[in-house]
Batch of 2 targets.
Target 1
Amino acid sequence: MSCKRVYGMATRDAYGKMLVELGRENPAIVALDADLSKSTKSVLFAKEFKDRFFNMGIAEANMVSTAAGLASCGKIPFASSFASFLMCKTFDQLRMSVANPHLNVKLVGSHGGISIGEDGASQMAIEDIALACSLPGFIVLVPADEFSTMALVRQAAEHAGPVYIRTGRPKAPVIYQQGSDIKIGTANIVREGIDVTVIANGLMVQEAVEAACVCSERGIDVRVIDMHTVKPIDINIIVQSAQTTGAIVTAEEHLLSGGLGSAVAQVVSEHCPVPMGFVGLNDTYAESGTPDELFRKYGLTAEHIVRKIEEVMKRK
Amino acid sequence: MDIDKLTETAKTIRRDIIKMTTEVNSGHPGGSLSATDIITVLYFKAMRHDPQNPSWPDRDRFILSKGHAAPALYSALAHSGYFPKEQLLTLRKFGSPLQGHPEMGKLQGVEASTGSLGQGLSIASGIALAGKIDNKDYHTYVMIGDGESEEGQIWEAAMSSAYYRLDNLTAFIDYNSIQLDGWVKDVMELEPIVDKWKGFGWHVIEIDGHNFTQIIKAIDEAKAAKGKPTVVVARTIKGKGVSFMENNVEFHGMAATREQMEAALKELG
């Protein structure tokens, strides 16, 4: 973690790498994809474990229910596709085939958010976290970098129950290092501060760190938290941050409805009301462009977080 | 179990269906009655299963994809010994494990949560795939409705099951020709159903779904067919066994009144 970003692997690459590692350790792990394995990176698993990989073709609904059947026989299926198709096209299959019987299925949606860039709105998942969080019993993970992705994917495989993991297309700035302590359900404080807390996940963690660096020059001491686990959310750290810093800004590459901001606000309003601000997509789809252009237009840069911090500070 | 015993058991299940749905004044008797004979053969003749050990890894599985026929499944499970028969009359009641549509984890013997149509064939396909991975010799059966076959996911699963050569998978289509809004042919024509499944690469068998000899023979043939999954297109009668319910769309999702129940039970003998 630093004010100047250092790029590492894309989180989807880290997923593919870890899936292979897990496959070597545990023969119960199988993988499915819907004709996007080269993009989601499950192709790495497919190459090494030909008889434990199932390409289901462009048929996501069937893939999810098939994964449920596999899980009911003791397999640990990882089903991947683009986050938009995996969550939006199969919501009822997730609901009844997977969530209702609480089966041990892992869903990995790559190309989360608008940072996929040029492909445009049809391929951008901006509602996947809201959908995943609404499924009873699901764990919902949005890792920020390669190290946290690998740690969280490993723990997802060890957890008995459904998990949704969002990965991203572009190279992700490095936040952690090999061996960093990252646990499902426990948020990480990536920068200490006392005036205000920014709670972010995914690519927004680096944006938040850079926002904190700018604020520091302006005399505002910002705590930055990586809330990689949106569900179950780390209530303790939210309450503690609200109490000690007195204001909270959330930042996510997702619609403002139903994602990280909503989840944090629910905790804050119930346990420790303080002024809050929200950075995310405001009731709109994005469009084609470079990730940088899109982050600027749709309000997801460090600069937008700084503005939100300053606005929230006035309400303290 | 011989055919006389199967006939008796099916009659008992039909009586249960009528009593259970009337008791709670809701449910789907028509499609339960049409499914009864096939379900009877599966649980009391064809399937390798052990009610004392419901999670036995080598058991044959049955997925009721048309989950609204739950009363037929529940009765078969109870008479097999998965749970006490007395529980049947708690169907759809608060606190009962006999949910309106089957839910895995709530009731022993239920292999999937169904009721949202279209998903059961995919789930069964995943179970069959797991059997192939592990070289197990269990067989997976699934029953889908004719109306349910309008769901796109059925055809996704038809494709993938054939592609993965799941000859350990047998699907029954309970072709009773009636869905909630009316005759299937008037809502959304399915014909030519046999050609469709053949085109998707399945072994297709057509039978009278109320003829025990044909049902048994179809299962034997399905298990013998190698390299492809089998679909049994079973022509059935909605409401089978109760004259005033037969081919009567009203009894798709409506229970008999107390008076009608008495008449139905008398007919069933």
Target 2
Amino acid sequence: MTARKRITGILAVGVTAVLLLSGCSGNGPESADQASSSSAATPKKGGTVYMLQNADFSYLDPARGWDGGVNAFYRLLYRGLTMQNAGDAKDPNAIVPDLAESLGTPSDDGLTWTYKLKDDLKFDDGTPITSAEVKFGISRAWDPQIGIGSPYLKAVIDAPGDYQGPYVSGDIPTIETPDAKTIVFHLKQPFPEFDNVLAQPNAVPFPKGSGGGDSFIKDVIASGPYTLASYTPGSVIKLERNKYWDSKTDDVRKAYPDAWQVNLGIDPATIDERMISGQGDDADAIAGKISAATLPRLQTPQLKARVISAPAFCTTYLGMNTTKPPFDKVETRQAVNWALDRSAVQNASGGTQLADVATTIIPPAVSGHADFDLWKSKDGKGDPEKAKELLAKAGLPDGFTFTMDIRSQPAMQAQAEAVQESLKRAGITVKLNVIDTSVYYETIGTPAQQHDAAITGWCPDWASSASTFIPPLFDGRKVTEKGNNNLSQLNDPAVNARIDEIMTMTDTDAAKKAWGDLDKQILELSPIAPLVWEKGLFLPGTNIAGYHPSTNMTDLTIVGLKDPSKG
Amino acid sequence: MIRYITGRVLGMVVVLFLVTLFTYAIFFLLSPDPAAQICGKNCTPELIDQIRTNLGLDQPFWTQFFTYVGGLFTGRTFMVAGAPVDCAAPCLGYSFQTSQLVGDMIVQRLPISVTIALGAAVLWVLAGLVTGVLSAAKEGAFVDRFFAGLTLTAMSIPNYVLALVLQFVLVVALGWLPFPQAVSFTDDPGRWFLNFLMPWVVLAAGYAATYTRLTRANVIETLQENFVRTARAKGLAPALVWRRHALRPALTPIVTIFGLDLAGLLGGALITEKVFGLNGVGKLTADSIAANDQPVIMAVTLLSAVFVIVGILVVDLLYSVIDPRVRTGGAQ
Amino acid sequence: MTLTSSSLEIEAAPGADSESLSESAPTSGRRLVHAFVKDWAAVLSSAYIVLIILMALAAPLLARITGWGPYEFDQGAIDPNMGAIPIGPAGGISAEHWFGVEPGSGRDIFVRIAYGAQVSMAVALSATVITTVIGTVLGMLAGYFGGIIDTIISRVMEFMMAFPALIFMIAILSALPSDNRIVLLVVVISLFGWPYLARIVRGQTLSIKEREFVEAAKASGAGSARIIFREILPNITSTILVMAALAVPGYVGTEAGLSFLGVGVVPPTPSWGQMIASAAPWYAVDPMYFVFPGAFLFLLVLSFVTLGDRVRAILVSGETRA
């Protein structure tokens, strides 16, 4: 049985690989995980699943937290009107209804969206979830101190200019609740992907009046299949079943285990060791990506069978500040793209199993990816000669020097060094400015503090389209004084206009193709140099089933144990 | 005597105040804007200003400083997301990054650091004394030379190297010890002991070596003293000679140094905790520095300084009890 | 840090040794040198130290000989399909790469160790010189003059020692920009290091100033400066020497520790501590990456400690023989 599944799995991998290589930018990304027994088997109900991780979750409050890890965690505790599809579905990036009966109904002018709630929805204390609670929960996003998570609700839904959330300004008038099962949203502008906005982690219901101050720092009011049993910050989080969650109202979440335990503050190398050893409870555990140093240890047949590979959703790139010479000349930027030895950066990122060379903005796993390479070179090692030609055209025949901001984290430093070394061959000298991780994003996001270039990454806020990939990075009108994401400060009118056009397209397939084309159009201006797409290898415990890890957000709601009695 | 103690205590208070002031000033000057960090990725200038006001960062330096010091004595109230959070005295601040009272964070982790410090202390004192006395008793013999070599080695290995080597050999390669995990003593004493064994050994190694050498040198010196020779000549049994006359004066200086070492450790063994992933005060410090969580860094620094200064005071007071010359201000 | 603060006190001034060191006039230099040469431990440790210094000085030459710079990548020496691990046994040791290569980049470890020696020795020796000078001067002033000068200096020393040095060093170093890192490291380490030496010198000065020859010099009308530098200083030279020899390994360890924690020199500049930190996750599959910098560091510290030990033993036995 296992052998047959494994062969099927291998075939699946082979087919997927062929599809990816042939540059298929089809309807949705293929879930390219090798079928290991951990994903193929069906979990059984019961037992406790453990998670080992290094960092604490940023916040228990979904209005405050916003990153891949904590978003995965929120899925266990909270529900929204819509949600991202199951991790083992054919199109895991798609948005499907959750508390709502179906996806939203927009008005003809696209400014109003209406949803109807299902019946028998309850919080973890038995109180019912109605449209009023959904409205209240969503309105928390406007509170300046609480709503620091996902920005989409505030950006897309209309609200009075001085509205500061329910605790300060009371009721939000632009969200209507004509009856207990209906909720209506008024938007600032038409936004065809509004279902995605409501799938964001902060669009969850809460009882009216709850959650002020720091009440959701240490405790939760859950709407999902689990609720908080105990929480010791920096140490352990325990979840238990929410007995008021009715699986009949939930098409996506399976909630197999009776409990979850997240062990925090463990050293990353130790996590890898424990997952390899799988002693005791570690056989019932899952963890994050394994590091490059652990790769050579995974060569035994037993370990190889357990390893699952997940594609990259994020692009690591070198952003060049077009306001600082000589990066204001397009030839200089193109020269950098030609001179780079991307295979060296790939090696610095852990080699071929952990990273793919990136030649486009949109990574393959995100819908809308188009495959092209404007800077083809032998073995992907770059073409210093071509670079020197371009530099001569830019009036810099002897090369030049620039300062690159990098994070003080070892992996990123290694990538920076690879960039440094490869650009040397074209006469370009790179000075590294190492910035502490805690202030890195703040620094590079402040145009007044930025240097000439920086290495950073970008992940989509949802993967069903590239609308959260290209605009934040390349829309020249979105350059802000602080928290700027358009590091290259590119402001090309043609690009800006095209972005506006694609954002209003209601035909999603046409939109995907259009994003792919825009990707190429932008890279011809070379505002950034894509470096690598960092994949992930995961090693679940031997007793884990239903595990489909993602480098963006793993779906924990379908994970369980093969044999709960052993747990 | 009273005057001496009062003088010293006053001096201690002054030093403590200065330490607080300097620490606060340095972090105030050097650290980047905490408001921007809390604000997160989607910041707007208005949001930052609001957070700065809430944190009281728009106040002048001295106001902020004395608010902090005042909080240490009387407690404070913080406004978190529009609701007040009470911080009882001594209020060590509120970490907006982790949304916890700093005092709570430290108290939670103190048991682990104290366990590590005390366990290692017991280990290094025992090891140091025993090997030191043995080496002194058999001065020049093989035993002595063997321990000499061992202590030199122990003193020369950086503790993080030792930690990594031990972990690889004992846990991964041989599998004799389990991975260090947080297990409380009441749940599983055996496992608890095994968990802490490696950190204890790593931390104790360097100190033990030093104590061995000190003990050895002191005992050898004492054994040559006249009063010991006299006791021996009088025909006193060797064991009694040892206990009553040789060991006591030899050990006195060790006690005083031990006080200082232990005090220093209570602030958290930063590197050891970090390498073994133990959730103590030291690891909290390392993590907070990496995350630039100012209130926590301030609090831990202050706590550490308090331990050391109190330690110095206690040691000096003990010394003055033992050596009357000190009280009167003679040579120390 | 490898050596604790109190251990430095213990080592440099345990009761018997320091008194005998300062009691009589210094013995003949030639006799000491003779005793030194006959002591194999002292010779071996000095030899290793000299070797490391030579290695540090000749690093560029070594790079030229092996054909690899310290920052040069060698993609051919690592396996891209296996997490970029070095190809070949023992971390890729070969005729081309005598100590193997680093995973992820293929940089030559031998050359990086040579350049890392530069950092270790430069920082440690500079910090030792600075702390010894400051510590000696301030310690002598405090011990000799007593009174208000002593109070001020002693309180400053206590103040510096009360600071949790490691925390501060990390915080300061991580907050400052990364230019001139080596200078910064020396400054920060020296800032927190001088009080320990000053305390010892102060103690020594206090006991010496009561001796007859100092009384005699005072009676003959010598000025304070003369007394301090002509009478007291020569008598504590041996203590200072031992102190300095023992301080160096401490600073080597401190720099390595700070680099291990990531606040030392900026990459791609190599440093032994930072190499150990990078090597830590690889110790299971490429232990040589860890062994080389670890062993070099350990042996350097061991050599300095042994040297300090032997020098003190020779000085003491030199005294008693004389």
